[in-house]
Design goal:
Elements: E1 5-11, E2 14-21, E3 26-30, H1 44-47, E4 52-57, H2 73-87, E5 92-97, H3 99-111, E6 115-121, H4 132-137, H5 142-146, H6 150-161, H7 168-177, H8 183-194, E7 195-196, E8 199-200, H9 205-208, E9 217-222, H10 231-239, E10 240-241, E11 244-248, H11 255-258, H12 260-272, E12 280-281
Parallel strand pairs: 3-4, 3-5, 5-6, 6-9, 9-11
Antiparallel strand pairs: 1-2, 2-4, 7-8, 10-12
Helix pairs in contact: 2-3, 6-7
Length: 284
């Protein structure tokens, strides 16, 4: 049976929590907005057979600290990079879900050389459309409004967008994590950093041309995603070449939960494929 170690350390002035297990090349997993390291719970035993897996709780989430910080993408990326420095992680395989996908993209701006391969799962930053509720939560007064409702909002939200896989025990646990003081502030500031009333405000292409060399990239998406539309993955193939989009028919925003077996197989195949090529920005 795989043994998972729960660890803590400070990076960029923030106490971070993560779990790690396995042996082999480093594989770093970044969850989405309002989520935690437990979003990868079905995958960890499988992935740990071939990789040393690190499932991080992003700042303001899970069991990590909730500082009074900006929570913008650049800050998140710097914090994750310093955490990698602490662990002396190099040549990493990086997986980012939803907002975690945006953080992973931003890490390429200053740390592309340390990222061997990048997997983006229902990722933000590849289009404008996003669930209307997230647009409303990006309003300036959102912190005061959502603070009393973080526990209930998490429970309702996971029912609405979680699809198959969010069992009642997991909803309760995530609701308790998001009820910790400081969670609403972190949630609102993180949301405002990437979303406005018109939708997502940060796009990968706005920054990608500043990256000297992109790593191999693979996209994973449920074609019934109610949060970040499946069409964003399709559109990404028009401006990124040598990138493949893996479709999960009928899956929502969490294909790594609802289709865990197939997701793990597809991810490991991508990470071990010796023929995979670096992604490139298409010329117009």
């Amino acid at each position: 049976m795989t043994s998972f170690e729960s660890r803590r350390a400070r990076a960029s002035g923030v106490e971070l929590h993560w779990v790690e297990a396995g042996t082999g090349p480093p594989l770093v997993l970044l969850h989405g907005l309002g989520d935690s390291h437990r979003t990868w719970r079905h995958l960890l035993p499988v992935l740990a057979r071939q990789r040393r897996v690190y499932a991080l709780d992003l700042p303001g989430h899970g069991l990590s600290e909730r500082p009074d910080a900006s929570y913008d993408l650049g800050w998140h990326a710097r914090t994750v990079a310093q955490w990698c420095d602490y662990l002396e992680l190099e040549d990493i395989d990086l997986v980012g879900h939803s907002f975690g996908g945006g953080v992973a993209q931003f890490m390429l701006l200053s740390h592309a050389a340390r990222v061997r391969r990048l997997a983006l799962v229902s990722a933000g930053g590849l289009g404008r459309e996003v669930h209307p509720i997230l647009r409303l939560l990006a309003l300036p007064l959102a912190t005061r409004v959502i603070q009393p409702f973080m526990r209930l909002g998490t429970s309702v939200g996971t029912r609405v967008v979680g699809g198959r896989g969010f069992i009642s025990a997991e909803r309760r646990l995530l609701s308790l994590m998001n009820d910790v003081p400081g969670s609403a502030r972190a949630f609102a500031r993180t949301t405002r950093g990437v979303i406005g009333l018109s939708g997502q405000t940060v796009h990968f292409l706005d920054h990608a041309r500043r990256i000297p060399a992109l790593p191999p990239i693979r996209l994973f998406w449920g074609d019934r995603d109610p949060v970040v539309p499946w069409s964003h993955g399709i559109e990404a193939l028009h401006y990124l070449t040598d990138v493949r989009l893996v479709r999960f028919p009928g899956a929502g925003h969490f294909p790594h939960i609802s289709e865990a077996d197939r997701f793990a197989a597809e991810l490991l195949a991508f990470l071990s494929d010796p023929t995979v090529r670096r992604a490139r920005i298409a010329t117009v």
